[in-house]
Please model this.
Amino acid sequence: MTTIEGICREVIEKTEWIAIATTGPDGPHVVATWGDYVRTLGIDNDTVLIPVGLMHRTERNLTRDSRVELLCGTRQVVGAHGPGKGCSIIGQAQLQSSGPAFDSAKARFPWARAVLVVKAEKVEPQL
Ligand SMILES: Cc1cc2nc3c(=O)[nH]c(=O)nc-3n(C[C@H](O)[C@H](O)[C@H](O)COP(=O)(O)O)c2cc1C
Model:
């Protein structure tokens, strides 16, 4: 299991938003979520939870290819070249519209139609 810890956890604790990339029949597709949404739902070892209000194209992409890459960054963490550090999380994702993860997302974000459950397989710092 890949744990999200250390400098990458620090970046996630500060990031304003997180990019979410999937692969579709026409190529890459990128959407986003807010950092505070992800922090509200909590990061448990290798798992990031993202509330889904829309993300219909992302959902279609994931049903045929579950690979996902998240990318976030912040000036508030010092990197190798000065203020600014990023983190990429590569793994598998699934939309869930029932179960404990969904219940937790729905309780905090009543507009959520699902929760995106991302399981990290590789965590890579940037900068
Ligand atoms: C900074 C930012 C945060 C966003 N947060 C969410 C979010 O938490 N949940 C969501 O469903 N869409 C969010 N969106 C909108 C998505 O990026 C996307 O445009 C929308 O969900 C449609 O997705 P689709 O192209 O996969 O259908 C956010 C967009 C931005 C720019």
